[in-house]
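Aim 2 progress update. The chain analyzed this quarter is reproduced below.
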Amino acid sequence: MNNRSLGSQGLVCSALGLGCMGMSFAYGTPESRDSTEALATLEAAYALGITHFDTAEVYGPWQNEELIGAFLSGRRQKLTIASKFGFTIGEDRRISGLDGSIINAKRACEGTLKRLGTDYLDLYYLHRLDPATPIEDTVGAMAELVREGKVRYLGLSEVSAATLKRAHAVHPISALQSEYSLWERGVEREVLPACRELGIGLVPYCPLGRGFLTGTARRAEDYARDGDMRAHQPRFQADNFDRNQALSRSLGQLAAKKGCSSAQLAIAWLLAQGPDIVPIPGTRRRTHLADNVAASHVSLASCDLMALEEMFPRGAAFGERYGQTQMAWVDR
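Predicted structure tokens:
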């Protein structure tokens, strides 16, 4: 797999990364998550050329970082490991709010390094903007971690162009992580142009729309309410689901003409949006991994891009991408 640069500060990684959240959190149920298969998937991803692995303190919480730590042994120097902080997490593992404070930035980093079994992170993100803490203070604390050698590069997640510019003025930001896909193109308005103005790479998460763009999505009520985030997301509910299914079917029809899968077409579209974009499709099992990686070999002609543009104009998806609480955590 080819490499790409994330930002202008020197961070280089594989053109596709692996989002590891679903191995420990947010999808399925605790009973359905298989750590043995997850480790095998991590190994297979590395064998296929993926070197960029994305985790976070809140995934589990904590369990996903421990899983990645078990995978790192013997190959740390060959990998780009990204993690995130910014939530208040109780001893009962419940998430109660946002915390981008100076104290939490340092505390969270120490915990992450311990769970991963490493002495540095390649990329450290603020997971969500904390309205109670000026972004300058948060990034200032993160910059101190860089000076201490605990972090190599800094990133932010789901922030506005204005916040991104304020942060970048304190310390160079190498990567912005945000939801970006055929059915979620909001970053194209202001955020992506700001990234390019400042020399910041974009890391799209959920490039397959939480499975919707693969053609395998089910209605919200068919997902476990106590373990799967899709059970609570408007795009999977009621009439929104039916309308979004029509979009998914159209994508599948075009993919069939191209001789590839819907997932490959969706990822290939993202890769075609610019060399500064590194998508991180997530999967819990090896069965989907090779299909996702093969997207890096799918070539899109101008007529393909035009067809996708007509099929998925900005705002094409029906319903908000998150419920009310989580949308309130997105800096817009």
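The two ends are 34 Å apart (CA to CA). The first strand starts at residue 3 and ends at 6. These observations will guide the mutagenesis experiments scheduled for the next reporting period.
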